[in-house]
Design goal:
Blueprint: H1 18-31, H2 43-53, E1 111-113, H3 119-127, E2 137-143, E3 146-147, E4 159-160, H4 161-173, E5 177-178, H5 181-190, E6 197-204, H6 208-222, E7 226-230, H7 254-262, E8 267-271, H8 286-305, E9 307-308, E10 313-314, E11 325-327, H9 335-343, E12 348-350, E13 363-365, E14 392-393, H10 397-434
Helix pairs in contact: 3-10, 4-6, 4-10, 8-9
């Protein structure tokens, strides 16, 4: 993380000190620093603090998940009163920043890392009272098959209907709300406002039954959104799926069926590859990677974003950045594929690594592969946390909901404790560069 230390000097020099002023300016030009003489920071202290800010403690994986019938941890939904930054400029000694928030509640050994290099831009977005408050947390979760109750589940990929209901109902009880990919992009990039406890629920692969028979009732009841990780493959030749819940549905093709479900407004369709079943590895060519990225994007736009469902015709001059997220097939990615995804317009990418929840400028990652979890590819070497985001697995996601809520509470308390330090730091180092922190907009 780069610590911004340049400040604009407003000192008026007297004519009798012109010579000294010229020497001072020359030094500033050579060093790239224009700090006022009355507030010259200790540069060793500044850069030591920069290292502190970018350093996080590695935590051990959490113990067995808390059973759902155990006492619910005490979590509060009452937001802290908004503290409007004081207009008075800080004039004390050179301030420092504390190390970033850490917690011992992270599962799977996730180590939180930051991804915003400009400290001043980060603090401005973090301290803006119109943005998401510190402690706002997002829990990404992936679902695959959802079986009827009574079905014996023999793997970690699928769950029963009751398992799914347990998850969504407990999440609702704790005050979680879903976010779309577009909302998540705004939050992670700019700290745009989202619910303090947010869910990003992803249903992988082509599963119309999962949408219509299992999730749709709760999407309507809670006004939630379900994100589809949609693969292309042979969709053009697939017939609609007959569903026990809805024998009178008139759809004949899978496209027709899914377009109708998408028209409800409760779905958010993102890319899950073209061929999909051949994972991206170090042996993958750029041609193959680009096909997975771009063919899927083109077809998804055609069917879900640039089609007028009332007429069945394409929307003329359709302009969209969607899909914004690439859900890596099989959770497999490489530094090269991450680079190409970013270059081709994707803003987020999701793995299958359940390393924990995510917050603004705070993403759990691993720097090295762990032999105990060989399918979890270390994200650190790719160098782009937003393109290698974690996801909880559906089979035990319900057990982690209280954990995620408590991580958000811990982060909020940590931020409240250190808020004045951040305000002082911003006032001293940043305000002349990135401007004043906005005031609360009471009209919103």
């Amino acid at each position: 993380m780069q610590i911004a230390v340049n400040r604009t000097s407003h000192t008026l020099f007297h004519s009798s000190t012109v010579a000294l002023a010229l020497i001072f300016v020359s030094i500033l030009l050579l060093t790239g620093c224009s700090t006022p003489a009355s507030r010259t920071p200790d540069m060793t202290q500044v850069f030591e603090q920069a290292m502190l800010t970018a350093t996080y403690a590695i935590v051990e994986p959490s113990a067995n998940p808390t059973p759902l019938n155990s006492p619910t941890p005490q979590v509060s939904l009452t937001p802290e009163p908004t503290v409007i930054p004081s207009p008075t400029r800080y004039s004390g000694p050179a301030p420092t920043l504390q190390a970033s928030f850490i917690t011992d509640l992270l599962p799977a050994g996730g180590e939180p890392v930051s991804y915003i290099e400009d400290t001043c831009e980060y603090l401005k977005a973090r301290l803006d009272p119109n943005n998401s408050s510190p402690g706002t947390v997002v829990m990404p979760v992936m679902f695959h098959g959802i079986a009827e109750d009574g079905t014996t589940i023999t793997d970690n990929m699928n769950v029963t209907h009751s398992d799914m209901v347990t998850f969504v109902e407990h999440a609702h009880e704790l005050g979680f709300e879903t976010v779309t990919t577009e909302e998540l992009v705004g939050f992670l990039e700019e700290n745009a406002p989202i619910p303090a406890r947010s869910l990003y629920i992803v249903l992988d692969d082509r599963r119309p039954g999962g949408v219509r028979e299992h999730f749709m009732h709760y999407l309507k009841e809670y006004d939630w959104t379900l994100t589809l990780a949609w693969l292309i493959g042979d969709t053009d030749t697939r017939a609609a799926s007959p569903l026990g819940c809805c024998p009178d549905e008139p759809y004949t093709t899978l496209w027709e069926q899914m377009e109708a479900y998408n028209a409800t407004g409760y779905l958010d369709v993102q890319s899950h590859g073209n061929i999909h079943n051949i994972n991206i590895t170090e042996a993958s060519t750029d041609e193959y990677i680009l096909s997975e990225l771009n063919v899927s994007r083109t077809v998804i736009r055609e069917h879900f974003y640039c089609k007028d469902y009332s007429t069945g015709l394409p929307i003329e001059n359709c302009q969209t950045d969607q899909p914004l997220a690439f859900i890596w097939p099989g959770g497999s990615f490489t530094p090269r594929s991450v680079q190409l995804a970013r270059e081709n317009g994707y803003r987020l990418g999701f793995t299958v690594n359940p390393r924990g929840p995510i917050m603004y400028n705070w993403i759990p990652q691993a720097q090295e592969n762990n032999p105990a979890t060989p399918s979890w590819i270390a994200e650190g070497p790719a160098g782009d946390p937003l393109m290698t985001l974690p996801r909880y697995w559906s089979y035990d996601a319900a057990y982690h909901l209280d954990e995620v809520a408590n991580i958000g509470e811990q982060a909020a308390k940590y931020a409240k404790t250190h808020r004045q330090e951040e305000l002082n730091y911003y006032s001293y180092y940043c305000q002349d560069i990135t401007g004043e922190i906005p005031s609360l907009n009471l009209e919103n």
